[in-house]
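Need Substrate-specific component PanT of predicted pantothenate ECF transporter's 3D structure for a figure. Predict it.
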Amino acid sequence: MRQSKAYLLTIRSLFIAILILQSFVPFLGYIPLGIINLTIIQITVILGGILLGPKNGLFLGFSWGLIKWFLAYTAPSSLMDTMVFRNPIITIIPRMLVGWIAGLVFQWLYQKTKNTKLSSFTTGIIGSLTNTVFVLSFIRIFASHQAAAVYHTSTQFLTNVLLGIAGTNGIPECIASAILVPILAHILFRFTKLKPGQTPTIYKY
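Structure prediction for Substrate-specific component PanT of predicted pantothenate ECF transporter:
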């Protein structure tokens, strides 16, 4: 039991360390594209949900959101950071949902298919879409005036702008997740004690 808990804490700490590294080192987690950032850090959180289950995925998503929220205050990289992503509802909650939903989806799919590659491929897509859909939806709901000012549009046309971002950013992010998540999940399952469908009880606290 102690070994299982220590192993979990070690793996989870490694994931958090990777999230910190991706958040602070340019191009490892976000690719700056002017007033927006192309996100690839969601892959780490999705993998955490797949390997460690939905509760730990939720925790890793919270960690990602908290780091992003902290950086929006201390080291903003765009106008969106200063005007939109200082709202913790927009910055933290969607990231928590990424890890939680990824864990739930993978567990359900693996129970149905017993196919790690197919389950992780689908989870990668759904996890990435979760991030895109909830972040943009929350921006529209909770920061429409601020986002409209950043994009030099009116709140009336903001939805069209956000839909455009969903296409230009969301699709590449989704493709990246669909490709990398199953590859990395296969490697991690092979070279760690973690096995799909065999999450130890200690992981479920």
